[in-house]
Amino acid sequence: MRVLPIVAVFLLLVSLVSAGELSDFYFHSGPRAGTLTSAAPLPLYDADPQHLWNRLFAAFYIRPRVIPANDGEPEFIRYEGGDVIEFLAWGKTEYWSSEDVFAKINPLLDEFLDQHGTALIGDPLKRALFQHDVWAVYDHLIGLNIRRLGDKPTRDRRTLLCDKLAHMVKQLALSADELNALPDTYTLAVKSGAWDSQHEFDASRNYLPSGLLENRDEWVEIDFHQPKVSSDISARFITLHARSLRGRSYYRIFYRFPEGRQQVLDYLKRLDENGIDWKQAANNGFVRMGNDVPQIPVGTEVVLLQFMMSLDNELRPTPTKVVESFQFRAYANLDGAIEPPTNTGVGVNVLDYRLKRHLLFDNYKHGGLEREPEAMPQYRVAIDGNSYKAPDWGFADKTVLFQQCVDCHMSRNLDRLGVASIPSIIHSGGFDAGAQMGVVHPVEPGNEHIRGERVAKYKSHEEGFRRLLEFLDE
């Protein structure tokens, strides 16, 4: 019997670790269900968990959460994060500014920069994703310094990290042609055959509409209504989601009514003519619907599609076709009643799919998307993630993602029912976000790029991005 050398055995074992198989790294039951078993790196960017890119990713995207003792259960730690799209940090998070985290991250950044870490992986898609991961860390840290949070030693630590992160972002950058050649992952998801093509108000189906990006007779892409405005303020017309992520993602929004496109167009026209309380809107600085607002039809479907932004090798913010999330709402009723049954219990079915690197890098399996659990507690950073008022670990009574969805999109207590539960149908972000500009309108054919271009312009004027350029000029 031949005995393999130790090194050969090690390499053989590493080769057997598939980036598409992460089950062993997670708890599947109990109070830790859905979280990582440890802070150890995952085999995401390379099959070897100890690859430098994996070690860096783990340092940035895995963090401990101490769960205090309760009801006789002892204190324990949940390791949050892993293969997630959000950087786990609210606006007042101090974790990433601590000396302990600095001591862990700083040597890894030096290792990457000193040993030409960019050259370790040449795949353009992985480079784009990794740049995006690093960019989020930079934005968080520089944002804290812009607000001058913390004492001088803390700010100095952040500055040192931001300098190194900025150089990483630059080194990982692809050319404009390479970014344009990145895959259209929504189309790949549809072609994968992993998703149901019909919803039929059955939330157990993993529904992904095949005609979303092409079938204009059914799906209507919408944009904020805007009159002729100067180019100086056009960058204000971006979604609240994109603003919350500081322009590292852009969003496209689609509506489908039961009778097709014309029903959507007629409804938006009627809403514009009879649905807005303009006097109240003028007084408050944002659009408010009137008491007799025309109602959306039962059966309305809404999609919020999130795409990744990148920086090219000229450091220009650039939209890509890589989907980060697909969020879907289908209205079975408009009054928040429990009948007919829905997976929220308030008349609307909610589906939420997120990009998973281990799937995307495994021959675009499922188009890189995976459905999010509906009732599993999880730490998420979404709207207002940059607010200095936001807590570090999210809202204690809303740790289930669906509760957060319902509060925004179908809540009797907040009088958000029917059309009032679709914030995107009017531009209501207030003066700082472009002022009141009324009811949305359909995106014209050939103008589908407008969302990404507008976010790119917004990002290019953002203070944190200007600081990034300054680090690279020094």
Report on this structure:
With 474 residues, the chain is an alpha+beta fold. The chain has two domains: 1-82, no CATH class; 184-465, no CATH class. 33% of the residues lie in helices and 14% in strands. It has helices at residues 6-16, 52-61, 99-114, 124-146, 152-172, 176-180, 185-191, 231-234, 240-244, 261-274, 278-284, 357-360, 401-409, 450-460, 463-473, and strands at residues 62-67, 76-81, 220-223, 249-256, 301-311, 317-331, 348-355, 369-371, 426-427, 438-439, 441-442. Strands 8-7-6-5-4-3-11 form a seven-stranded antiparallel β-sheet. A hairpin with an 8-residue loop joins β1 (62-67) and β2 (76-81). α2 packs antiparallel against α3 (99-114) and α4 (124-146) packs across α15 (463-473). The chain is globular, with a radius of gyration of 23 Å. The N and C termini lie far apart (61 Å).
Indicate the radius of gyration in whole angstroms.
Answer: 23 Å
Structural class label: alpha+beta
- Count of strand segments: 11
Tally of separate domains = 2
- State the shape: globular
Beta-strand percentage? Answer: 5-15%
**Cα distance, first to last residue?**
61 Å
Major beta-sheet overview: 7 strands, antiparallel
Q: Which whole number gives the mean pLDDT?
A: 87
Low-confidence stretches: 1-20
Count of alpha/pi helices: 15
Quaternary structure annotation: single chain
Topology:
Blueprint: H1 6-16, H2 52-61, E1 62-67, E2 76-81, H3 99-114, H4 124-146, H5 152-172, H6 176-180, H7 185-191, E3 220-223, H8 231-234, H9 240-244, E4 249-256, H10 261-274, H11 278-284, E5 301-311, E6 317-331, E7 348-355, H12 357-360, E8 369-371, H13 401-409, E9 426-427, E10 438-439, E11 441-442, H14 450-460, H15 463-473
Antiparallel strand pairs: 1-2, 3-4, 3-11, 4-5, 5-6, 6-7, 7-8, 9-10
